[in-house]
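pinned: reference chain
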Amino acid sequence: MPSDATPDPYADPLVFGPRLQILRTRKGLTREQLGGLVGRSGSWVKGIETGRLKTPKLEVTLRIATSESPGRTPWNAPALAPRTGRCRWTRPGRCAGP
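pinned: its structure tokens
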């Protein structure tokens, strides 16, 4: 578990909502911003995060995963290539190196 006591969303067995909240806050997005990126409201995002609403359908989940706001990378962006610090995109979510 990280030193700030928030669970690791990749290692800990979390349900979708809390995992979404952790990743959203780590990206520095508000609920309204994330909702706007996927065509929903901030209250919809809150409902998903708190478990009031069910996990969204795959289509919406994929939109969340591939959404990006200006100046930010997609949620599923790979780390920079270690050799050059650059990454060449071949397909969404795939880095082919320099």
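why pinned: Confidence is low (pLDDT under 50) at residues 78-91. The chain has one domain: 16-95.
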